[in-house]
């Protein structure tokens, strides 16, 4: 086990924002899996979805995850995509090579965070054009959570509390995460 710290959760749950803060706290490299996918593909995630569909994107995602998980070097903090643990046995890769942290944010808060930017997220794109985008977004996120919860619930730690670094690092320590291990 490389002792990476992997953040999982729905879109808008703060994986990138919290991931950067945790990486700084633990003095680790931070990576965002979506950024790695875009760099490798040479185009945006919406462009990947348009050209290859979700199936093509998920294959790229699995390849990028395995590249990060099997790399040599010190442990890092990785923000995954919302669906990463749900496809291609990625959850097993995450659990075998690190500690998984599910950032479980209430749906109304996710809607508040995402309502302005949902058109840039391929799986939420249709909600922005709805007559009531907040309601459509809530319903889409609710369906997405129902499909993904079985994967998210297998994380080493579910954090549903305050999203401060102090609260999360305390919860991680209590759950057995040891950041100094390599």
UniProtKB/TrEMBL annotation:
<keyword id="KW-0808">Transferase</keyword>
<dbReference type="InterPro" id="IPR027417">
    <property type="entry name" value="P-loop_NTPase"/>
</dbReference>
<dbReference type="GO" id="GO:0009423">
    <property type="term" value="P:chorismate biosynthetic process"/>
</dbReference>
<feature type="binding site">
    <location>
        <position position="34"/>
    </location>
    <ligand>
        <name>substrate</name>
    </ligand>
</feature>
<feature type="binding site">
    <location>
        <position position="16"/>
    </location>
    <ligand>
        <name>Mg(2+)</name>
    </ligand>
</feature>
<dbReference type="GO" id="GO:0008652">
    <property type="term" value="P:amino acid biosynthetic process"/>
</dbReference>
<comment type="function">
    <text>Catalyzes the specific phosphorylation of the 3-hydroxyl group of shikimic acid using ATP as a cosubstrate.</text>
</comment>
<keyword id="KW-0067">ATP-binding</keyword>
<dbReference type="GO" id="GO:0004765">
    <property type="term" value="F:shikimate kinase activity"/>
</dbReference>
<dbReference type="GO" id="GO:0005524">
    <property type="term" value="F:ATP binding"/>
</dbReference>
<protein>
    <recommendedName>
        <fullName>Shikimate kinase</fullName>
        <ecNumber>2.7.1.71</ecNumber>
    </recommendedName>
</protein>
<comment type="pathway">
    <text>Metabolic intermediate biosynthesis; chorismate biosynthesis; chorismate from D-erythrose 4-phosphate and phosphoenolpyruvate: step 5/7.</text>
</comment>
<dbReference type="GO" id="GO:0009073">
    <property type="term" value="P:aromatic amino acid family biosynthetic process"/>
</dbReference>
<dbReference type="InterPro" id="IPR000623">
    <property type="entry name" value="Shikimate_kinase/TSH1"/>
</dbReference>
<feature type="binding site">
    <location>
        <position position="82"/>
    </location>
    <ligand>
        <name>substrate</name>
    </ligand>
</feature>
<dbReference type="InterPro" id="IPR031322">
    <property type="entry name" value="Shikimate/glucono_kinase"/>
</dbReference>
<feature type="binding site">
    <location>
        <begin position="12"/>
        <end position="17"/>
    </location>
    <ligand>
        <name>ATP</name>
    </ligand>
</feature>
<keyword id="KW-0460">Magnesium</keyword>
<feature type="binding site">
    <location>
        <position position="121"/>
    </location>
    <ligand>
        <name>ATP</name>
    </ligand>
</feature>
<dbReference type="GO" id="GO:0005829">
    <property type="term" value="C:cytosol"/>
</dbReference>
<comment type="subunit">
    <text>Monomer.</text>
</comment>
<feature type="binding site">
    <location>
        <position position="58"/>
    </location>
    <ligand>
        <name>substrate</name>
    </ligand>
</feature>
<keyword id="KW-0418">Kinase</keyword>
<keyword id="KW-0028">Amino-acid biosynthesis</keyword>
<keyword id="KW-0963">Cytoplasm</keyword>
<keyword id="KW-0479">Metal-binding</keyword>
<dbReference type="Pfam" id="PF01202">
    <property type="entry name" value="SKI"/>
</dbReference>
<dbReference type="GO" id="GO:0000287">
    <property type="term" value="F:magnesium ion binding"/>
</dbReference>
<feature type="binding site">
    <location>
        <position position="148"/>
    </location>
    <ligand>
        <name>substrate</name>
    </ligand>
</feature>
<comment type="similarity">
    <text>Belongs to the shikimate kinase family.</text>
</comment>
<keyword id="KW-0057">Aromatic amino acid biosynthesis</keyword>
<keyword id="KW-0547">Nucleotide-binding</keyword>
């Amino acid at each position: 086990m490389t002792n990476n710290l992997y953040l999982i959760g729905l879109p808008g749950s703060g994986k990138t924002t919290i991931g950067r803060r945790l990486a700084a706290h633990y003095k680790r490299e931070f990576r965002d899996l979506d950024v790695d996918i875009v760099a490798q593909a040479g185009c945006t995630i919406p462009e990947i979805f348009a050209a290859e569909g979700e199936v093509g994107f998920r294959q790229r995602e699995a390849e990028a995850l395995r590249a990060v998980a099997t790399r040599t070097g010190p442990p890092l903090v990785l923000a995954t995509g919302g669906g990463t643990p749900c496809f291609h046995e990625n959850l097993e890769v995450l659990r075998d090579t690190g500690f998984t942290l599910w950032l479980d944010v209430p749906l109304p808060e996710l809607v508040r965070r995402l309502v302005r930017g949902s058109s840039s997220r391929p799986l939420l794109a249709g909600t922005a054009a709805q007559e009531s985008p907040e309601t459509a977004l809530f319903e889409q996120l609710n369906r997405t959570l129902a499909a993904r919860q079985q994967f998210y619930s297998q994380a080493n730690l579910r954090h549903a509390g305050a999203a401060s670094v102090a609260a999360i690092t305390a919860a991680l320590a209590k759950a057995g995460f040891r950041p100094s291990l390599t």
